[in-house]
Design goal:
This protein has helices spanning about 10-20, 35-40, 50-60, 70-75, 95-110, 125-135, 155-160, 175-185, 200-230, 235-240, 260-275, 280-305, 330-340, 355-360, 395-400, 415-420, and strands at about 1-5, 25-30, 65, 80, 115-120, 140-145, 165-170, 195, 315, 345-350, 365-370, 380-385, 405-410, 425-430. It is of the alpha/beta class and about 425 residues long. The protein binds nicotinamide-adenine-dinucleotide. Nicotinamide-adenine-dinucleotide (NAD) binds near residues 31 and 153.
């Protein structure tokens, strides 16, 4: 099948590449000229494990190409995926500007039946808006389908190739048949494809992300209570996670959720609720807890050193919002940097993949190390913001020789507090008194 993917970011590039991998011919469209130039030269502009092999193979075999020209990109496509940004607007609602602009442009370009698939995370009712924006200037037949994406950055290829489920929101039998054919190769093991109306599909994505964010905020509150009552959140986590009704995943305490999805999606769902005059109380608490949790690590630093951090030198391990990605959108590390720099401290950071993105955002506000040990030289303390595997079993003796103080603030609970004490570290983590 011939496919176009409009928007070639984390979702669009993975979507396009994976559909090419199953034999489709895919053209990816993006307005970012520099990005398209890079992609056309065979360079991947993001860090996503395991994407390179598929990307290179499908370019080589002529199934994957890139353009900035929308009408050229969609010309022969039967299905057009929209994988466009839906950032938060000033009010917390999802900004549909990018999606609706492309929908308007598509109207006059359609000359034969096509399925327009919304892969962006969009509020309830967007499929109708997209339909109206296209129809305003369109003489051809088309359907709009809501097909939310559940991939996780860092595992995106695996998640796309073997999805837990595929959600297809459409009432059109014709579009349903095309989508079923397209997704067939990805669900051969029997993973379910759920068909539903567009509105339910749109809400499914927000409900999924909001539920996961709720799990994180809940465990962070349990962790905060553990610190006060002298319990260990990791023991509690294991204790409750063994219950199959609760499940083991997404129960790790830390310094709050970040990334390009959870913060904006929880906010957007709260906004949708209030637009419909429904007070979704839990969501408000989830956001409030997350905003507070983000501060806890800097509060611990201040409690230790006092409010005057001027001239103190902090090593910071991890900048990405989570491991295995270079994405720094809403990363807790950025908050830590801002607070410490504002207080006059010096921050020397290292991240295996996200440093170039942070350099673009923060420039020379902080120093950047060549590896995780480089930044420890003469550090008053180490702060850990991202749980990269690389940080899990470091050479502690080497660290001690490099650091001014044997002091660690760990926002991701990477080490055993008892072992750290035995090694002579002063070690602060989350929810482990
Ligand atoms: N990143 C994730 O993990 C993830 C997971 C599931 C769903 N989503 C959702 O998918 C959508 C896309 O997210 P993303 O992380 O891939 O975003 P992104 O910012 O990485 O990529 C969006 C791309 O769209 C391009 N673009 C903007 N306007 C355009 C236009 N008019 N024509 C063509 N291209 C245009 C941008 O240049 C960019 O390359 C969002 O709605 C997001 O919420 C993201």
């Amino acid at each position: 099948m011939k496919i176009a993917v409009v928007g070639t970011g984390y979702v669009g590039l993975v979507t396009g590449t994976c559909f090419a991998e199953t034999g489709n011919h895919v053209t990816c469209v993006d307005i970012d000229k520099e990005k398209v130039e890079k992609l056309s030269k065979g360079q991947i502009p993001i860090y996503e494990p395991h994407l390179d092999a598929l990307f290179e193979r499908n370019i080589r075999q002529g199934r994957l190409s890139f353009t900035t020209n929308l009408s050229e990109g969609i010309q022969d496509a039967k299905v057009i995926f929209l994988a466009l940004p839906t950032p938060s607007d000033g009010d917390g609602a999802a900004d549909l500007r990018f999606v609706l602009q492309v929908a308007e442009q598509l109207g006059p370009m359609l000359t034969d039946y096509k399925v327009i698939v919304n892969k962006s995370t969009v509020p309830v009712g967007t499929a109708e808006k997209v339909h109206a924006a296209i129809a305003a200037n369109c003489k051809s037949e088309f359907d709009v389908v809501s097909n939310p994406e559940f991939l996780r950055e860092g595992f995106a290829v695996d998640d796309f190739m073997k999805p837990d489920r595929v959600v297809i929101g459409t009432l059109s039998e014709k579009a349903k048949k095309i989508m079923t054919d397209l997704y067939g190769p990805f669900v051969r093991q029997g993973n379910p494809v759920y068909y539903m109306d567009e509105r339910s599909a749109e809400l499914t994505k927000y409900a999924a992300n909001a539920f996961l964010a709720t799990k994180i905020s809940f465990m962070n509150e349990v962790a905060n209570l553990c610190e006060r009552v002298g319990a260990n959140v990791d023991m509690v986590r294991i204790g409750i996670g063994a219950d199959s009704r609760i499940g083991k995943r997404f129960l790790f305490a830390g310094i709050g959720y970040g990334g390009s999805c959870f913060p904006k999606d929880v906010q957007a769902l709260a906004k949708t609720s209030s637009d419909y005059k429904y007070n979704f109380k839990i969501l408000k608490s989830v956001m409030e807890v997350n905003a507070e949790q983000r501060k806890t690590i800097v509060d611990k630093v201040r409690k230790h050193f006092g409010d005057n951090l001027k001239g103190k030198r902090f090593a910071l391990w991890g900048l990405a919002f989570k491991p295995d990605t270079d994405d720094i959108r809403e990363a807790p590390a950025l908050y830590i940097i801002d607070e410490l720099v504002k207080a006059g401290a010096v921050v020397a950071a290292f991240d295996p993949e996200a440093m170039s993105n942070v350099k673009k955002a923060k420039g020379s506000d902080i120093q950047y190390g060549t590896d995780e040990y480089d930044v420890l030289k003469n550090a008053d303390a180490l702060i850990i913001a991202t749980e990269w595997a690389l940080f899990r079993t470091p050479e502690f003796e080497r660290m001690q020789k490099l650091m001014k103080n044997k002091l660690i603030f760990d926002g991701r609970n990477l080490y055993d507090p008892i072992q750290m004490k035995e090694m002579g570290f002063e070690y602060f983590s989350v929810g482990r008194a």
